[in-house]
Specification:
4 helices, 6-stranded antiparallel β-barrel, about 280 residues, alpha+beta, 2 domains
């Protein structure tokens, strides 16, 4: 009986080596590399650099940029539409010559001019990202393209910019300044007077200040001058923490952020304190 059991086990082992082995070898082979678009590659790079933050979701919340020159604009479509979405065939008028390698653009529109709530200085234009478009056929100064991603309704006269112009990855930690400064909320999304948890805001700190996606700030209230003096100095009310925000994407001098939590309504002009990673 013991001899028969031994023979049976050896037979099972032999069969597994013959039939299962090749499939296991195939499973262990690395996947073949597939060609990716510039947008897809940038998405992968940004996700890796910002430790898992969804790049498209963060960027599609808009940004404040200065001196942005469009590469062209959307002037029509294959079908007689004025509002477009993913999959639609559209026509684009180029306003400047693009590199031969350019075949994918970001669609955007300018919402408003933004001025710093404290200094009143011009900061830049609030940009809304509406989607991305890929070239199908090139003509003299026009391009036939297909919308490959859409966030909001895309409309005639929406402008385009090269992927790298608006979708640059953030400064690497090695190139970032270690002197990260406190900041201010300079604009809120959708012209809201008060915002709260999960709302989008824009701050006056960016890549030049060493700010990276994933960085966090504490939102403060209080600190107003009382009109009284103490030992020759103006007396102020104590500051209190009313919430936290996380950076989603960065531009040179500004950043887009999401409010993670708030105990009071958040408004333009609210001061921010940078939170080191160990806090």
């Amino acid at each position: 009986m013991a001899f028969k059991q031994l023979v049976f086990k050896l037979a099972v082992l032999l069969i597994s080596l013959i039939f299962v082995g090749p499939f296991q070898a195939l499973a262990d082979e690395p996947p073949t590399e597939e060609s990716t678009s510039p947008l897809a590659q940038l998405v992968e790079n940004e996700i890796a650099s910002s430790r898992g933050i969804d790049f498209w979701s963060s960027l599609s919340n808009g940004m404040i940029v200065r001196e942005l020159t469009a590469d062209g604009k959307l002037i029509g479509a294959k079908d007689s539409k004025t509002i477009f979405s993913m999959g639609d065939i559209v026509y684009i008028l180029l306003q400047k010559e693009s590199p031969a390698s350019s075949n994918e653009w970001v669609l955007f529109r300018k919402i408003k001019k933004v001025y710093h709530p404290k200094t009143k200085e011009f900061v830049g234009d609030l940009i809304e990202i509406t989607g991305t478009v890929r070239a199908i056929e090139n003509h003299d100064h026009t391009i036939t393209g297909q919308i490959i991603r859409s966030k909001d309704a895309i409309s005639l006269d929406d402008e385009i910019a090269a992927v790298g112009t608006l979708m640059r990855t953030a400064t690497s930690p090695e190139g970032a300044s270690s002197d990260k400064k406190d900041g201010t909320i300079i604009e809120v999304r959708d012209n809201r007077l008060d915002t709260g948890e999960q709302d989008i805001v824009y701050i006056d700190r960016g890549r030049k200040d060493g700010i990276l996606p994933g960085n966090r700030f504490e939102i403060l209230h209080g600190g107003q001058e009382t009109g009284h003096r103490f030992e020759g100095k103006k007396a102020t009310l104590p500051q209190r923490s009313v919430g936290h925000l996380v950076i989603l994407s960065t531009q040179e001098q500004t950043a887009t952020a999401r409010i993670l939590e708030s105990s009071e309504p958040i408004s333009k002009g609210d001061p921010l304190q940078y939170l080191p990673k160990n806090k």
